[in-house]
Amino acid sequence: QVQLVESGGGLVQAGGSLRLSCAASGSIFSIRSMGWYRQAPGKERELVAIITRGGNTNYADSVKGRFTISRDNAKNTVYLQMNSLKPEDTAVYYCNTQGQTSTLREFVSWGQGTQVTVSS
Q1: Is residue 73 within a helix (H) or strand (E), and if so which, with residue range?
Q2: pLDDT digits 0-9 by tens, 3-60
Q3: Which residues, including other chains, have CB under 8 Å from residue 6's CB and lie 6 or more apart?
Q4: How far apart are CA 57 and CA 55, in angstroms?
């Protein structure tokens, strides 16, 4: 089993910054990709940013230039630096990882979610 522990959410004023962290642990052989999704009330979950083991990244158009995703492969941890936050960034943010377990089975894991609230 692979567990994800998220941290770093909270309440911030518009224009402020937050940094989210997500650490993966358990029977991990390798992690292929790590990413962040978010879900606002009444909306579907959407991709925010994703990063591969090699460092390739992809961002939602709405966060390009404001958010930066990074990862520490040695620590199986992914970060999301969020700058210039807007009220429309308010959502529950979920960490997602995909890879192989120590028995070489594919896995997809989700974190429990962390609330980000941006006040105007």
Answers
A1: none
A2: 999 999 999 999 999 999 999 999 999 999 999 999 999 999 999 999 999 999 999 9
A3: 20, 21, 22, 93, 94, 95, 111, 112, 113, 114
A4: 6
